[in-house]
Amino acid sequence: MAAKAADDKQTLPSKEANLFRQIVKYYETKQYKKGLKAADQVLKKVPEHGETLAMKGLTLNCLERKEEAYDLVRKGLKANLRSHVCWHVYGLLYRSDRNYAEAIKCYVNALRLDKDNVQILRDLALLQVQMRDTSGFVDTRQKLLQIKPSNRNNWISFAVAHHLNKSYEVAVQVLDAYEGTLEEIPPSEAYEHSEMLLYKAMILEEAGKPEQALQVLEAAHGARRIKDVLGMTEQRARLQLALGHTDDAEATYRELLAINPDNTKYHDGLQGLLKLAPPPGGTWTDEQRARLASLYDELRQQHPHSMACKRVPLDFKVGESFKEAAEEYVKPFLRKGIPSLFSDLKSLYAHEGKAAMLQDVFERFEERLGPTGEGVPGLEAPPPDNDDDPQKSPPPLVWAQLFLAQHHSRLRDTERALEYVEKVIAAAPGLIEGFSVKAKILKHAGDLEGAAKAAEKARSMDLADRYLNSTAAKAFFRAGRVETAESTAALFTKDNDQVNNLYDMQCMWYEIECGRAHAAKNNHGRALKNFLAVTKHFADFVEDQFDFHSYCIRKLTLRSYMSLLKLEDRIMSNPYYSRAALGAVNVYLDLHGQPSAEERDARDEEELLAAMEPAERKRYKAKKKKEEARKRREEEAAAAAAKDKADKGKKGPGREKDPDPNGAALAATEDPLGEATKLIVVLKEHAAKEMETHVAAFEVYLRKGRLLLALQASMAARAIGGPSHPDAFRLAVRIAHAAQDVPAQGSEGALHPVVDTVMRSHIKELLEGKSIGQYVQDWVQSAVRPRGDVRAAMAAAEMLCLVQPERNPEAVDLLLKRQADSSGTHAEFVQCHKLLLNVLKDEAAAATFKQEAAKHFRWSTYFEGPERESPAPNGVSDSIASLSIS
């Protein structure tokens, strides 16, 4: 009887049943106000109707009233546990909050009640491919295919599911089976069919069956069914190369070069098949260089307008042949005034001796060039139409000097770099690139204020250029002028809503630079707000996949879809994510150990009360109680007003006011190490090859007392950098030192015997079988060698002080010997000074080091060099000086 009564409550009368269908329609058409009104009408008649309660909750969720939404959906589910609609709606709520695991559970429960519900199966399949649950995705797509075998999308999705599950043969069989159902391809579907054939060839290629893949391509091409001829030709070249058909592959790559001779992938493919590519980490043999020279002489004749055919030889040529090729290559850049020349040639600086040869080439240009380019064949400037034209390009001599300015800055010869850039500015005061290059030179030299002034000058010369605006804002951030940087960036935002506009544009460089600037000023809340905004962007990138799971299947852009999925799988390895996550981790590390805001307030209040008379203390407490009551009333009124505003009625949710614009709540977290650990877990999964990831992981785990995980981070750092890397050395010593404080076996707080054995074994391996003191001493001996690595000296000094504090003077002396070393960078010397000041605690030595460093880094803001553009303004942080150079 009770069950029957419950069922009666879930059965709607005819009128209310029609209203319920209207609720669903209003939800689908985003008419949320009408949907709520209809739901209230149904609930007035049947207040315990579970599906109506669930739909009302789903509608409220779209109006950002999430707490009410969850309450109503749970209430509806409780009222009707056997309703697939309630479970489906519950899953939709979880999906909207990106809690995909719980959403999948709800969908599975819904399918237990209605196993053939196509909409729930589709929603489940979307979540499974989003979560890369490939085996579950295969099962769901198979079920959908069985229900609707006439639907093309079900066949294609089933093939994609098997492809993702690495069941390549089955995926091809599914595509073949679907193709067998087709009688004739109408012209309107020719492109889709072409994509399906190319996708089949791609599956076979990934399955390690290049011969079958090539057969598919050749058959389809012969039947004139391929529409993307370029994509097919690229794949055919790869397959021919994989099969060892060198002659055919060479002909195909030459065919591709005829289409686009500036595509470097085609050049790499041609070099690879002719066995002319250098070995990894190696260089070309003399025979390879000769064959490459002959090959590119031929390609230049075939493609005389291709820049790649002229640029690639600069990589393998040496000596005089390199100089001749470089001279011919750069002439069009100098004649036309192309500012990107240095960026184009920058990679050559990694080749031994080529930097000096480039300097020789450009210095000879400088000597021979006249005011209009005469003196060098091929660089004569055309006669100007109007000598007074302010927009005409400067002569080739100016561009040659601009290159030399960047060249000397790259070699850390700031004096000569500035000499050349001043020549450029004097000869062409209207050339924006002159001031942009000057800003970069001063930045590299450590003059952050001078760099900001030069970047601002460049920006002021073209106020409509967003790139110049961004460069100036970045320079202001690095100089510690946060407000100026923010107002500069705001010039290109809409509606005077700078913060939200930059967030909506996912302007990650801005958020990272802003976060670093605030972190340097110990403004932890604002720093976290910006760093975590970047991590939210990446979460949005992952969420954006949902837009393509159905679209790409429907349009049959399957190759692009698979590329998208692969991109999304590694999206968190993007440098922007790493920079933001590491920045946030460093802020959390700073917050660790500091008292929370509540603790500070309580301590301050306690001190204040202690200094008061009893009567005064009583008045203070009464006043505080009234103030708290007033704040509580204001908060309740604000919440009620917000609820009324939402009820009244927008068609959709608007932008809510940020309740924590300055990140105060983020900085007030009770568990900063826990928050840091969440980011570390992602970094370890997606940026495991970066040294910074494991250094940050070590810092977090060591502070949490997770010695085994800290040891793991230390071993990973050693695997990346080798035993000679300063960070690997530092982490090895620190984990060994921390392990000394672990209680012995049998004592309270001792490690598990197995863990203890593992720790000791791996620490012994890290220390190369030596004692911790001997290991550090050996490193110190290698660090004192003349012209040794500055970073190695810093690591040796820091660890010597940690292991043997009584040898602190020796550690200080080790660093002072590096002050005359010109091989170190500005950032390294800044870190060295901070080590003396903050770790070794020797203010006199730090002052001496700073004075000597100022002689070498004469333009440095941090070291107050005598030739810096201007003194550092109030508020410029020391930390910014080192951050900006890294």
Automatic annotation (TrEMBL):
InterPro entries membership: NatA_aux_su (IPR021183), TPR-like_helical_dom_sf (IPR011990), TPR_rpt (IPR019734)
Native species: Tetraselmis sp. GSL018
Region described as Disordered: spans on this chain: 372-395, 597-670, 864-886
TPR repeats: 84-117
Bias (Polar residues): 876-886
Pfam short name (any one): TPR_8
Protein name: Peptide alpha-N-acetyltransferase
Biased composition (Basic and acidic residues): 625-660
